[in-house]
Target: Nlr family card domain protein
Amino acid sequence: MPKRKLDTTRDGSPKRPSAPASDSVVANSYFSDSSLNYRAPCTSGEGRMCDIFRDLRIWNEFLWPVGLELREYCPAELSLLEMRDGHVASEVPQRKQDAATLFQHLLTYHRCLISLELNGCIFTDHYQLICDALSQSPSLRELKLCLPSINTRALQKFTAALPLQNHLEQLECRLPRLDQTFCEGLSEFLGSTVSLTTFTLNVPVLMAHEGRILFQGLKRNATITTFSLKTHMKPYLNSHGNEFAEYLRDNQTLRTLILSTKQPIDHVEQRLIMHSLFRTTTLSEVKLVGFTMDDHNSGLVALLLRKNQSLRKFRMYNTTLKNITVERIRPEDAVEICRAMRETGVRERFFLGNPFTVQDPGATLTECRDLSSLDIDSRVLSEFDRFRTALRLLPSCAHVTSLSLVEREELFGNNVTNGLIAQYIAGTTVLRELTLTFVSRIWDPVDRVERALVQALSVNRSIRRLYINGLCFDESETQLLAETLQSTRTLHDLSFYPEDQQSTVSLVQKLSPNFSTNYTLLGLHVHRHEAVHCDLFTIDDVLGRNASLVSRAAQFVSGRRRRYLAAAAELVHSNSGLVELIRDVTCVNEDEVLSQIRNSLKSYSELDDFMRLAGVVKCGVTCHVRDDGEKQLADIGRDCWLCIRQYLKMGDILDEQ
Model:
């Protein structure tokens, strides 16, 4: 059936056919003047994606002005998220009402929506509508509430809707402070829920009264296995420390406890926490973030690890029982530590949390080959020659996979230094992450490091994550950088923060027109200037699509067999983000991951396998004999089929009309 030609809109994008007036939210969407039949029912089912996935771009045009977006959470399931650095339109009242209407319909009727973030932009003014819909949600499993200010009535409605969430597994509340009414409602829910397994509370300070109310509910809970508390606990512990200890002692379901603080906490309170951990018999993982240890508490940690029979992982400053990750080591100890790592055989279990700052280029780059993440700062090295020595040694450092280069203004315009940086970037085949920071108030239109930099990046084939801070790029340089991003098969995450606004505007404008053909980039982080909001929306839409494809492809590689998962794997099988995702989940090396990806694609190379996965046949391909005796598909032979298969992709098989 021929496809219907769509009219184009003022920005050149396809215009959706108009829905009946009664079905329209507004006359036009934010960017493309498109209407949306938002009343269409959810069509998700076993092996079938909801039709809403076809219109995600249009939905997100309505949600964009209030800082929200629909993203594929996992194959065939949706998440409604708050956009980081999202845009809030100037015509807020009408846009908020439109978004709230969509919100209501999604929550009430779409079983494919399983994860939701509520932000202050839309929730504060429309909490009644949203909470009513929240009460009717058929399938919500994850819920996050993030509010910049407290609205008591809105929070009351929110907690009143929680007991009706029969499928809710994860709940996170991020608030500027706690209020008693909210704590009472939340405590009641925590004490009665039959589905919640993960609870996260993020507030600046946990006061004694509110903390006591919350822990009353937590003590009655019989389902939570992961509890994360991100707050300053001192006021609560001072008054109710024994209650906290009793909660840990008596709880029979909690397996993971995460306590995080950004404020200094007395060693006395830390001792109370440590003594509380002695009493638990079910915890298998504890993570303490932001805490410091005196000698006494360090001894308590050692005693805890020796006596607690259930604890399997204890993390403090990223230190675990199986893997040791230290934040930093002293430069003068680097050579000795690397030698000890080699001699004791712990190279695979010892990690640095931060890049190692190079102070002695000769010793560090030639003798410390166990340090894969380095920070080379021209100000730290203080002498031009030492900085250049480091740059000259880098090409021989096959062990360096992550590098941060900081060039200060005293080296700007130096062709030798700039040339060494460009040569290294162009030639390296092992570097995976690169951070470039140029600190200068000088902009030289003649001796331009920008030109050498973008030329080097255009030929690099190894960098996966790139961060550029500083410099001013002209039109020709942003054009080359845009072309590099468009064609790259390795770079999947870029942060671009130049010195001037025009560089960002120019790059975004050059990137957006043909960006839909890019299937590699998963993240683009820039200053979101008002002048390029339409272009940024186009880019964000493609980034969301790519992230969804990578997620689907990972599912296919892991063994889940669906046609749309196979189609995704064909599109992004070489994406470095896919390789990293599978590596992190399976904990195997990259060679093994690449082998898994190849094998998954080969699993349906034969005719019968392909047609079964595509849904064309149930068992195998058979054809009725033709009257003229000519060969048919089942008769062409394996070699001919494999030749055809080179040009036939799973995505070419259309849905049944």
